[in-house]
Prior knowledge:
The protein is an alpha+beta fold. It is built from three helices and seven strands. Strand 6 (98-110) and strand 7 (113-124) form a beta hairpin. The radius of gyration is 15 Å and the shape is globular.
Amino acid sequence: xxxxxxxxxxxxxxxxxxxxxxAVLPMPLPRIFCRRFAAxxxxxxxxDQSGVWGTVGQTRTIVLADRGTMRETLTAVSPGASFGxxxxxxxxxxxxxxxxxxxxxxxxxxxxxxEVSWQWVVEPTRAGSMVMPVFARMxxxxxxxxxxxxxxxxxxx
Length: 157
């Protein structure tokens, strides 16, 4: 089995830590992931979610613009600090590359604001391990765009 690969991106925002956490945890995924980056599609819809996202054990189905899907389970919530989730199984174009992913959003004080970090620990398939450096570069661009969208939502212009 190929070794997991950790991918991480962050952005510092002039927002209070708790306010950033409280806004991002329930934020609609199509708002955050609204743009394609290379082969990584935007999120088109979220289905099968019961209530506001924020309770450990909740699940939902993420529908990508390329018709792929991902089943997400909220695995941890540390109010004001972080939340984590697991994505598995996946369908669509990512299926041959990634078998599962553990995600974490973290919020830490940074000067007078917050550093918002997104991390994925990717479990590549055998074929995916061969193209993981390319996937990692695409993921970095996708993450940069997602963090830009979070900034747009949280920081008035």
